[in-house]
Write a structure and sequence with these properties.
This protein has 886 residues and is an all-alpha fold. Helices cover 62% and strands 3% of the residues. The longest helix has 36 residues, at 173-208. Bound molecules: ligand KAW and zinc ion (ZN).
Length: 886
């Protein structure tokens, strides 16, 4: 093989500043082995660029200055430029790469191609602009200072540790409110102006990579077309539990802060022990179920025992190695930054670093000696363990199986570390403390749920929010409103002070200005329990059949079996799609909430009971705004459905009106009953879903809803409505089918109103004939329906009353939407009456000429002389029966 390599290397393709082996013609038939050589060289050069960029980035993040920022930018651009050249080379040399036999090669190229394009998507100048923009936002976040509550002229408080400590420890509502507002105003507001340009840049890059927007670009890392739906499904499964937690915590907070804060069921965001209300373990002492029993807050113990940040990392390292995992290398201990320095600005948000040389791995964390940070230490150590496990993979596969995996490693181990059993073992809980009773378990599980379950909606909504922004669903003018819409809807929390579109509260969370995808933490929270369950089974620490070995008590400490199972999955890096790595670690190839549910089962049961006892209904009110937009969408959907129904009934009515027969009548009646049921259902739906619709701000919406809720006869109970419709049909049918006998030919008895009688009324001047026709018609058409009509009036008044009207007349008048309509019509009549009387007098005089004066002695004109047989009853009924939705 040696000569081949030599041949290729001698044929370097010089492209731009970087050189890659080029494809020689003579090797055309062996493109795949050339691809391998190419990749080896790519890996070497790429690692070097990656190292330089990481190094410069580290120097900046641990010492924020203009000088370090400049170098960081420069090295990052150099790396991008390199990736761009690599990508160009690939597209030229390996056009057929998707058809390679070796699936590893195909996967490798697919990954390089995406990374390469992302770097090269923008021209160098624009890329620089984008990176500067990202840096500007992150710097605002990392260097922000706020003013103290006690002394507003003291303005050097940082997030870490000052504000974090206040949010965690203070129980003074005013002070918490102040800290919350300071942080959100000092960080969110200045970041806001950069966010829209950032969104545009991100989308542009995504589009050049053939993704619809930056949200879709992020989701690619999960390699599943249905990932979003799977996440939603998981959330729906876990939501009831979250709502129970929420209800319980809310009730407890009322004991501390009074009920005035939570009347609407929402919890103000500043009372949950955390700046973002993302996890709630810091208010454990306010919500502890059994205060007299053991709790696992070991902060005091750690302090008493003289724990330092370094010691916390050593304890963590010892846990990892007890499983047979890889110890942190000497470079780690030498170069990591484990405490906040006080002589310079640093990026305090914790992170774990891979310097791409298989040697340097570091953590940067402004560690404080608390239980919370002990967990974070394990979290960060998990990242480094992953790095160490996959360090022998090619660079392109040195990533998590998916981003959620990377976040889950340390947390999985921490699930063992934090058990009371383990804390005893490492001397952080007094050996004599009883821990095996029910109350202690509930205390423990609640403290875990405050961290894990409370986090879920937050872990989901941050990216839901950004997906909505990236795909254009949310405009810049709605950035903050949308943030709070989701915070309210998913977390059931609200801002402690008034917010507006000046603010950009999402920007006050690290990952938003730092451009870090966040769904990974939601994924991690679910899969870490799957990992835990599998490792616990492996360690023999958990037995689903044995109540003495519940999942939440499991500690995998010192289990080499568990360690090697974990390592096997981690060592794969991203060389295979994540379900395969998951299969190796858990035997499952899907995300699944059953492990997390099982872990917390005793607590969930306890909470349901407790909330019932405390009469705490889980859930919270939605805001009028949210409800209004829901109502809008509902109406759009309804419009389609109703149009369809309306069409069907019209067809049936038409068929009947143009061919009165029993079959058509039956169909018409059925459809009208169906329509009535439908209207009733909708109306009930509206009042149930939007009980306060009358208070909506959009008048058009209120008008539509009002029309929907007035139902007319449809509001009658089904059997009554059937009767009503039958009466109405009987009457109109009788009217339409009445015939009378002829005046001249007594045996001819099939004269209909139209055309025969109408013609006679119009054309005949024979008073006797006219009188015959008039009398016959009225007797035959009107007479027999008198009883029916009486019933009809009763039932129709009953319907009117069900609609809150006095009678059918009032219901009819309602469609004129005027309180004074009756009076207005009366006034019109009074105005027109003199004219009518003039015409009346004139016509009467003329009719006397035709029929003689004896008919109008009293000034009245006999009705049969006026061609007015047709009345409007039919029309009235038709319009009365119509249901309008719009
Ligand atoms: C959390 C996680 C575990 C335990 C408790 C927790 N509480 C809250 C979280 C979620 C989240 C948060 O604080 O909101 N946690 C973090 O951000 C920890 C920091 C990190 O380790 O996840 C870090 C974030 C980061 C990403 C990219 C650039 C800079 C910082 N992620 C990494 O260091 C990392 C390392 C390897 C691969 C992927 C990410
Ligand atoms: Zn992390």
């Amino acid at each position: 093989m040696e000569w081949r390599v030599a041949a290729i290397i001698s044929l370097w393709l010089i492209a731009g500043a970087y050189s890659f082996p080029s494809v020689s013609d003579s090797f055309e038939n062996d493109l795949e082995s050339q691809a391998r050589l190419f990749l080896a060289e790519y890996d070497r050069q790429s690692s070097e660029k990656c190292f330089n960029a990481a190094n410069a980035n580290w120097n900046y993040a641990t010492d924020i200055r203009d000088e370090t920022e400049k170098i960081k930018l420069q090295k990052s651009l150099e790396n991008s430029k390199f990736q761009k050249e690599a990508w160009k080379n690939i597209t030229i040399q390996f056009k057929t790469r998707e058809n390679f036999q070796d699936p590893v090669l195909v996967r490798t190229f697919k990954k390089i191609a995406i990374i390469g394009t992302s770097a090269s998507a923008l021209p160098e100048e624009r890329l620089k602009e984008f990176k500067q923009l990202q840096n500007t936002m992150s710097k605002i976040y990392s260097t922000a200072k706020t003013c103290a509550y006690e002394d507003v002229t003291e303005c050097n408080l940082s997030l870490d540790p000052d504000l974090t400590k206040i949010m965690k420890e203070s129980r003074d509502e005013q002070q918490l409110r102040h800290a919350w507002k300071e942080w959100h105003d000092k960080v969110g507001v200045p970041i806001r102006q950069y966010y829209k340009p950032y969104v545009d840049f991100s989308n542009e890059i995504a589009k050049t990579n053939n993704f619809s927007d930056a949200g879709a670009f992020w989701l690619r890392e999960y390699e599943s077309e249905t990932f979003k739906e799977e996440i939603e499904q998981l959330w729906q499964t876990l939501k009831p539990f979250y709502q129970q937690m929420h209800a319980y915590v809310r009730a407890k907070l009322r004991d501390t802060y009074g009920d005035q804060f939570t009347e609407d069921g929402l919890i103000p965001a500043h009372l949950l022990g955390n700046m973002w209300a993302q996890s709630w373990e810091n208010i454990y002492s306010l919500v502890v179920p059994f205060p007299e029993k053991t709790s696992i807050d070991v902060t005091e113990q750690m302090k008493q025992q003289g724990y330092t940040p370094l010691k916390m990392f050593q304890v963590s390292d010892e846990f990892f190695t007890s499983l047979g995992l890889i110890p942190m290398p000497p470079e780690f201990w030498k170069e990591s930054l484990l405490e906040k320095p006080n002589d310079r600005e640093v990026v305090c948000h914790a992170s774990a670093w891979d310097f791409c040389n298989r040697k340097d791995f570091r953590i940067k964390q402004c560690t404080v000696v608390t239980t919370e940070d002990l967990i974070t230490v394990h979290h960060e150590m998990g990242h480094v363990q992953y790095y160490l496990q996959y360090k022998d993979q090619p660079l392109i596969f040195r990533r998590g199986a998916n981003p959620g995996f990377h976040e889950a490693v340390g947390d999985t181990l921490a699930l063992s570390v934090i058990t009371p059993k383990h804390l005893k073992e490492i001397g952080l809980l007094d050996d004599s403390t009883p821990i095996d009773d029910y109350e202690t378990s509930i205390n423990f599980l609640l403290s875990m749920a405050l961290e894990k379950i409370a986090f879920l909606p937050f872990g989901y909504l941050i990216d839901k929010y950004r997906w909505d922004i990236f795909d254009g669903t949310v405009e810049p003018s709605n950035y903050n409103a949308h943030w709070w819409k989701l915070r309210r809807e998913y977390q059931g929390i609200k801002p402690p002070v008034e917010r507006s579109e000046e603010n950009f509260d999402a920007g006050a969370k690290y990952h938003v200005p730092a451009d870090v995808e966040y769904l990974r933490y939601f994924v991690s929270k679910v899969i870490q329990f799957q990992f835990h369950r599998s490792l616990c089974l492996e360690a023999g620490q958990y037995d689903p059949e044995d109540p003495r070995k519940p999942l939440h008590n499991c500690d995998i400490y010192r289990s080499k079996a568990a360690g090697s199972k974990l390592a096997a999955g981690l060592a794969m890096g991203s060389s295979r799609p994540w379900p395969e790595a998951m299969k190796v670690m858990t035997g499952q190839d899907k995300m699944d909430a059953s492990a997390i549910r099982e872990y917390f089962k005793p607590l969930e049961d306890w909470l349901i009971l407790q909330n019932a006892k405390l009469a705490q209904p889980p859930g919270w009110q939605k805001s009028t705004n949210d409800l209004e937009s829901e109502a809008h969408s509902y109406l759009v959907e309804l419009d389609q459905l109703s149009s369809q129904k309306c069409y069907e009934s019209s067809v049936a009515e038409w068929a009947y009106a143009t061919d009165i027969n029993d079959e058509n009548e039956k169909v018409k009646l059925e459809l009208s009953l169906d329509s009535a049921k439908f209207s009733k259902e909708i109306s009930q739906n509206v009042t149930a879903t939007f009980p306060l619709w009358r208070e909506f701000k959009d008048p058009d919406l209120v008008r539509k809803l009002k029309k929907i809720t007035i139902l007319g006869a449809a509001r009658l109970p089904d059997d009554q409505f059937k009767k009503y419709a039958q009466l109405e049909t009987d009457m109109t049918k009788h009217y339409s089918t009445t015939t009378i006998c002829s005046f001249k030919y007594k045996e001819t008895c099939n004269l209909s109103l139209e055309p025969e009688l109408t013609k006679i009324m119009r054309e005949s001047r024979n008073e006797e004939e006219l009188r015959h026709v008039w009398t016959e018609w009225h007797d035959k058409s009107g007479g027999p329906i008198k009883q029916t009509y009486k019933k009809f009036v009763e039932i129709s008044n009953q319907a009117a009353k069900l609609n809150d009207f006095n009678d059918t007349g009032a219901l009819w008048l309602n469609s004129y939407e005027s309180e004074t309509f009756k009076d207005d019509v009366e006034e019109l009549w009074q105005t027109l009456k003199p004219l009518y009387q003039q015409i009346h007098a004139y016509v009467r005089a003329k009719l006397r000429n035709v029929y003689g004066d004896q008919f109008s002695d009293d000034g009245l004109i006999p009705a049969h002389l006026l061609d007015i047989v047709v009345n409007a009853e039919e029309l009235c009924l038709a319009s009365f029966l119509k249901f309008e939705f719009k």
